[in-house]
Task: structure prediction
Amino acid sequence: MDKDVYMKKIRLFTTLLMLSAVLGASAQAKFEKVKSLKGIKATVKVLNETQTVIVPDSEPNQRYVATDLPAELRQDGLHLSIDGDVGAIPPNVRMIGVPFHITCIKVTTADKKKYKLSKKKWCMK
Result:
């Protein structure tokens, strides 16, 4: 039984070491702007508790990952009009979508009421 406990500790240590290496590498990756978008109609898709993507209505196979999406707007099915910058996916990094830095978000009055949002427009720096 002691051998099993020892092996579990080694696996846990190895997993934590690998996870910290991956997170450290991705944290060092800087946002590299590829292009700017304005007035893109899109829908918020919540994949799970921690992953939310923005899917452009005109490109349903494209997904943007915006870490600066306000928590209030992380609601599945919410329709947005967004402005922002598309980033490059860093080398050797696998992502669920293309990095996206939001500069401005607008929602319709109907969605503001439906999702009980505090306002219709958000602008970031």
Q: What stands out?
A: The chain has a mean pLDDT of 87. Residues 1-30 form one domain. Residues 69 and 90 are 20 Å apart (CA to CA).
